[in-house]
Design a protein that fits this description.
This protein is mostly helical. It is built from 16 helices and no strands.
Length: about 350
């Protein structure tokens, strides 16, 4: 399977087949990394996920970069820009000795594994072997683009035959990494607390406690202990399982397939008059969303307004309705920086073949 084919299959999973579940799987994949003290400690130090004023932007910036290289073809400029920007941001912390290769490899493993786990458990159908192979092929290629060292992964020296082979090994490595490193730590809890606030952005105050327990029911015991959360009563697990089973039945038997014209694409295709791209939907703070008549008067906007949440166009300095430039994504202190690093990464990616199988090299 070529990288180009794998990316196209994965894009269909993101935009056509399972847009909601894929997005939630990535959210909880990120949440799972907060159970690793070396990762949560960095986030506490930078305040990116502990300062309420910074949390929404950090979350949306991460989402933007992932969507840019997940939803644009591997040979495109936007794909290369997104990976180059991500690599630059990581390099700042790597050079300072604050993040390790294994921390990044673990995060990558969750992005490859959690969507399949969530889809196979909660969606109206399971992934096919072809789709799982596409996930493995795509995310292995992202790891190559990040220059990650796979030396600690089984059979890394002999190589892998395909995306399924790689997924099996990265799953075993990821589980072993968790057993060694996912332990309770106050920093884990600090980051988790602010992330839960974001996940419950639209939940009214009197339902917050209920929402927190539902979140706890969606994570495993090891992570729950690492972030120092109590296990919720059994009824919450029953509620979550029943809710997803009901959704599964409705989708399978009462809903029509999503048409290509209904793709859940959240990124604008063209640059706007400011030379920026816009986000076309929002679940939390409306960062990078244009303040159009529809965005400010839609049903979603009315719900946000009734709950006292900001709308597109509110707090312009914080929410940037003019859009984003991929080269400026990240903490404010990194805006305008990293041009040379990004240029070198893009030049390297430009010579990578996207119409060949990554495992045949």
């Amino acid at each position: 399977m070529t990288l180009e084919d794998a990316a196209a299959l994965q894009c269909d999973l993101v935009e056509l087949e399972f847009p909601m579940t894929y997005l939630k799987a990535l959210e909880f994949a990120l949440f799972k990394t907060y159970g690793i003290p070396s990762i949560s400690r960095l986030l506490v130090q930078t305040k990116q996920l502990t300062d309420p004023a910074l949390v929404p932007k950090r979350y949306v910036d991460t989402t933007v970069l992932i969507r840019e290289f997940c939803e644009n073809p591997p040979g495109s400029e936007r794909y290369r820009d997104a990976i180059a920007r991500m690599n630059y941001i990581h390099s700042v912390y790597q050079q300072a000795g604050k993040i390790t290769n294994d921390d990044l490899l673990y995060t990558l493993s969750l992005f490859a594994l959690e969507p399949a786990n969530w889809i196979n458990r909660y969606e109206w159908r399971a992934l096919t072997r072809m789709e799982e192979c596409a996930l493995g092929t795509f995310w292995k290629s992202i790891g190559d683009a990040m220059l990650l060292d796979y030396g600690s992964v089984d059979r890394s020296e002999s190589g892998w035959s395909d995306g399924l082979h790689w997924l099996d090994d990265i799953r075993s490595w990821s589980q072993a990494y968790e057993e060694r490193n996912m332990v309770s730590d106050p920093d884990n809890k600090k980051v988790a607390d602010e992330t839960v606030v974001l996940l419950l952005w639209l939940v009214p105050g009197y339902f917050k406690r209920f929402g927190q327990r539902v979140v706890c029911a969606l994570i495993d015991d090891r992570l729950r202990k690492a972030i120092m959360y109590e296990k919720p009563p059994h009824g919450y697990f029953v509620f979550v399982e029943a809710l997803f089973r009901l959704r599964k039945v409705i989708l399978r038997y009462a809903m029509l397939p999503r048409l290509s014209s209904q793709r859940a694409r959240r990124l604008s295709d063209e640059l706007n008059e400011h030379g920026c791209y816009n986000f076309k939907a929002y679940d939390y703070a409306p960062l990078y969303v244009r303040a159009t008549l529809w965005e400010r008067w839609s049903l979603q906007a009315w719900v946000f307004w009734l709950l006292g949440r900001p709308l597109p166009g509110d707090a312009k300095q914080q929410h940037h309705p003019q859009g984003y430039k991929i080269s400026d994504i990240g903490p404010d202190r990194m805006i305008g920086k990293g041009a040379q690093s990004m240029y070198e990464t893009k030049a390297r990616l430009k010579v990578h073949a996207v119409r060949t199988c990554p495992f045949s090299r």
